[in-house]
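Pilot study result, target chain (423 residues):
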Amino acid sequence: MKPTPNTRLSNRALAFVLAGGRGSRLKELTDNRAKPAVYFGGKTRIVDFALSNALNSGIRKMAIATQYKAHSLIRHCQRGWGFLRAERNEFLDILPASQRMGETKWYVGTADAVTQNIDIIDSYDIEYIVILAGDHIYKMDYEIMLQQHVNTGADVTIGCLTVPRMEATAFGVMHVDTDSRITDFLEKPSDPPSIPGDPDHALASMGIYIFDWKFLRERLLADMEDANSSHDFGHDIIPHVVKHGKAMAHRFSDSCVTTGLETEPYWRDVGTIDAFWQANIDLTEFTPPLDLYDNAWPIWTYSEGVPPAKFIHNEDGRRGSAVSSMVSGNCIISGSTVTESLLFTGVRTHSYASLDRVVALPDVRVRRKAQLSNCVIDRGVEIPEGLVVGADPDLDRANGFRVSEGGVVLITKTMIEALNAKR
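Predicted structure:
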């Protein structure tokens, strides 16, 4: 069906965000929160990017499926996204796994998370459903992808990244023809197929799928009856549609939102400690790869009413300063030095301390003379006076901290409590 003139397809679409996963590769950062609820960029959470993309694209109907340790995520959505007004036909519904289809049945796969809510989605009276992962960092206009979906008459349209061919071994990879029709879907292939006319690159799935709701509804009900199915989009639904229907690839570069400062389309899976640390530290660069200062495409979130950041003391060796850093509201940099670091709301650093390439989540306290480098500090951690982190990996491990493959040190409350108990 062709869109009628002056009618945005997004007005007839639902954004369904899959946000139930733990994100175990983030280790202790997800001990008490789901990966989509992990903090990012100084004041936002990871899930805010998918939700903001939907809102900025004109999609005013949204639902988010939660499961693993969902309290932090649900609370954030209630507080940060409560501005949507149901009487204006806009909403964000939270759909926790609630054993709706059996007393022992939680969400058992990404597709099952949609299947268990079919009756709720039916009540939304939508034509299209945009399935989104809630754990990636990017800016994208879904309306452009919706237009391609409708104009090509696709059964499913899949958002795809253009990546170096051999880097695609970690993704689901699309084998496409010259018209971008998907002829095969390969999960983490050892020898990924290249893009026609571009032998050095492949198309990797972003975990973004657009369906006509009627089509997906029928496919989900059929999949539910298949005892051999894992009830997952990537493993079951998408391969079936590729084989028996019309699946089209949508290139992220066609709908990526940029301000002109970005040199290439930006998409990150911050699913490891190293990737999470690097993506946050990248934001402190003179020209960061992701422009968060874009008022035309804001990343909406819960904004606390807090005072501005403050820098105090101005003595040699005891000067409150921050260089090439992002410092959020309610931070007090007291007689300490901060370089190439990202500090979330409410961080306090005390005299003679130094922070170099540090990601400090909200309400961290850094006591006097602590020397910190190349680390991620979880929310509410109090760094003891004089503690040195990031200079000696063996010492960091001996102190009970997690040292990543890339040498980034993760510090949590539990680790600090265990360290204090040994002292």
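One observation from the pilot: The longest helix spans residues 213-224. A full batch analysis is planned for the follow-on phase.
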